[in-house]
């Protein structure tokens, strides 16, 4: 005797499996920020077609954004943290990134040095070289370099942002447009597969101008910032000459 499931029971069963899959995929996104279609198909023992449908549903719920071969987690725009709070986050990762970036330093060059606690880690390496000129809008970086006679430090003018201890103004941006550097060391608040972001337009415009006015642009960031977005996108990831994280260094 052949037993047949009712359509209603089968639909209920499929819905249960769907909800379980969506919960599983969402938990993977929360942990890893991205998922791969083929990996999910193996984990859940379903076809890749089924996984793509699941990802489409998560995208419609504004939980995930589909990419080639998978999806990334959608996050709300990040908020600016106070610089004292940033200093305590991922210190070892920032040091390893600065060590990699320091390989591009040499005597007799001009540097645009972006604000941030990752770029700040370059200070200990910069002071070892001769006749370096550093242009920055970060008060902490400027102060740390001010004791060294072999370093000329230029601080862009503007209003003081107490939270980030940076300077910004229209005059500062105009002054920057007339300056040129050999290397730009850049930080970011967040990045995804396409763009790097800043929490404010003012900072983003300064970052963008530094990139435009340098011969070589280098992004310094740890991967904990991946899969996040900010208020203002100031550059494409693949437009940097080098993109340095704790895991890799590549000219993408």
Automatic annotation (TrEMBL):
Pfam families membership: DeoRC, HTH_DeoR
Domain of life, per lineage: Bacteria
Protein name, UniProt field: HTH deoR-type domain-containing protein
HTH deoR-type domain residues: 18-73
Segments forming a coiled coil: 8-61
UniProt cross-references to PROSITE patterns, sorted A to Z: HTH_DEOR_1, HTH_DEOR_2
Keywords, alphabetical: Coiled coil, DNA-binding, Transcription, Transcription regulation
A Gene Ontology molecular function term of the record: DNA binding
């Amino acid at each position: 005797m052949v037993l047949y499931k009712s359509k209603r029971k089968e639909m209920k069963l499929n819905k249960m499996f769907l909800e379980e899959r969506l919960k599983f995929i969402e938990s993977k996104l929360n942990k890893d920020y991205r998922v791969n279609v083929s990996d999910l198909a193996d984990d859940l023992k379903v076809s890749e077609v089924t996984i793509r449908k699941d990802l489409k549903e998560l995208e419609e719920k504004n939980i995930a954004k589909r990419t080639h071969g998978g999806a990334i987690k959608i996050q709300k725009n990040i908020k600016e943290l106070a610089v004292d709070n940033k200093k305590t986050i991922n210190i070892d990762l920032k040091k390893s990134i600065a060590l990699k970036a320091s390989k591009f330093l040499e005597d007799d060059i001009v540097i645009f040095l972006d604000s941030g606690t990752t770029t700040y880690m370059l200070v200990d390496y910069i002071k070892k070289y001769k006749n370096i000129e550093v242009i920055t809008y970060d008060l902490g970086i400027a102060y740390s370099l001010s004791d060294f006679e072999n370093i000329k430090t230029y601080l862009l003018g503007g209003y003081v942002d107490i939270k980030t201890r940076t300077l910004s103004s229209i005059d500062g941006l105009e002054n920057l447009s007339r300056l040129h550097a050999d290397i730009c060391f850049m930080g970011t608040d967040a990045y995804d597969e396409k763009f790097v972001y800043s929490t404010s337009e003012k900072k983003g415009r300064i970052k963008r101008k530094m990139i435009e006015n340098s011969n070589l642009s280098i992004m310094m960031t740890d991967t904990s910032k991946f899969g996040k977005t900010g208020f203002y996108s100031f550059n494409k990831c693949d437009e940097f000459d080098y993109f340095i994280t704790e895991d890799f260094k590549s000219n993408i």
